[in-house]
Amino acid sequence: MDEQLALRLRLFREGGQATPEVTDFVAAELAALEAEGHTVTEATAGMLTSHLTMALGRLLRGEPIEESSTDDQVAAELAGHPEALARARAVSARAERELGPALPESEINFLGLHLAVLARQPSVPPTP
Q1: How many beta carbons lie within 10 A of that of residue 38, not counting itself?
Q2: Average pLDDT in the 39-56 region?
Q3: How far is CA 11 from CA 18, 95, 121, in A?
């Protein structure tokens, strides 16, 4: 993970917007993506990092996550990216096991969209 992306996570933690457990979970997910050969930088994964961190933070604080008026559009876009949606569901399942609450379907879809964008970035060879 590049320095700017690490700083983003640190600011969420130090600013009280996310617990250490949430930022550690997100950092581990980013590390896994990087190990698979994805280019994980502030430029390529900044929005993914913020979205996942904020969504998990809201869930752990018991704040509601509302359905979005764009949910149908996001779901339609994801129809062409089943691997990204599958990855988002796997992230959600890990978050539920490790942190407690499950991401709602609308958040899984938005996460899938971020993952689809990340997958379009040039890859780097996976780390051994």
Answers
A1: 20
A2: 94
A3: 9, 21, 25
Q: Which two tokens stand for residue 47?
A: 């929005």
| Secondary structure of 44-69 in HEC code, one letter for each residue | HHHHHHHHHHHHHHHHHCCCCCCCCC
pTM of the model: 0.87
- pLDDT above 70 covers a percentage of the chain that reads 91
d(CA 63, CA 57): 9
- Token digits for 105? 């379907």
pLDDT of residue 93: 96
Close Cβ partners of 34 (under 8 Å, ≥ 6 residues apart) = 1, 40, 127
CA 39 to CA 23: how far, in whole Å? Answer: 19
